[in-house]
Design goal:
- The protein has a single domain, classed as Rossmann fold.
- The two termini are 16 Å apart.
- The radius of gyration is 17 Å and the shape is globular.
- The chain has a 7-stranded mixed β-sheet with strand order 3-2-1-4-5-7-6.
- The protein is an alpha/beta fold and 195 residues long.
- Helix 1 packs across helix 5.
- Helices cover 25% and strands 21% of the residues.
Amino acid sequence: MKILNLGAGATRPINDIWTNLDNWEGGGHEINEPNFVRHDLRKPLPFPDNSYDGCLCSHVLEHMDCREAVKVMREVLRVLKPGGVFLVSVPDASYFRRVHPDDRNENWPELFEVSDPPNPIPTWFEAALWFDQHAQILTEDSVWAHFVRAGFPSHLVHNVEKGNVGEYGLPAFWEMVPHLNRRKFSLEMWAQKPL
């Protein structure tokens, strides 16, 4: 099994099945990481077609506008093997809407699992959803549209929260899930490349 960790950031599993790809150097630690590849996501992925069983993309797509994100997703579709799984996690605008009345700094640990010390930013809505490096705000419908526009068949796009992933028996999916982060306020969706 081979897994691509797209926009790995600080979440970089170090074992033979993972390729951690990012243009963020991470303080120089990647020198000791044999499975780290420095790469600008605006360029085509440096891997052959049909080479990965899974791709994890956790809190990356919101940093691109919708057209850039779709280009990256098309590249993921290209490098996935038939039957390969693409797992995406983004800040969930719907969750922020549900908890908005209680979104105050003192409630962040409960609502967002954030333990920042008292912060001058009064709401996590401002600090995270409207973070100045985010280029788009995403919902289930918009992430679905990204997947479909990128070429994934609409019937193979799923919300992790709403579906029984276990029925699909996808080892790559289960390898990736423990490496998701910010799960409390994230929308997690996955799609499968057709066989």
